[in-house]
Amino acid sequence: MLIVIDSDDDCPKELAPLLLARATGTANGRWPVGVVLAKSGFESWFVAAAESIAGHSGLPPNLVAPADPESIRDAKGWLQKAMPPGRKYSETVDQPCLASRFDLDAARRAPSFDKMYREIERFCSIAITV
Description:
By secondary structure, this protein is mainly alpha-helical. The protein has seven helices and two strands.
């Protein structure tokens, strides 16, 4: 069971262990459990991989990720500001398009996405050994 949620204003390092303990108790040893909290929000992973989504969903072709993508408190706002006037970022419209294009290795610049990547690797290794 892999739980992935936005941390919003919560500290991922504080909330994740609490959620992991609850989920582990629920799983009762029947299956592996992991918890990943996207720092601030899912969109911070798009910001981390900005170069790979440049030119899609109205984003400019020269879009560059900031040095510390998870320091952007409002990643949705960051994406919105990068879009042309009159074009608004829409989770329901833009997330599927951007998620299908963003570079997983580039997104690892965001520590919370790196955690997600490592959890998926861990789950895959468990599946192979079972």
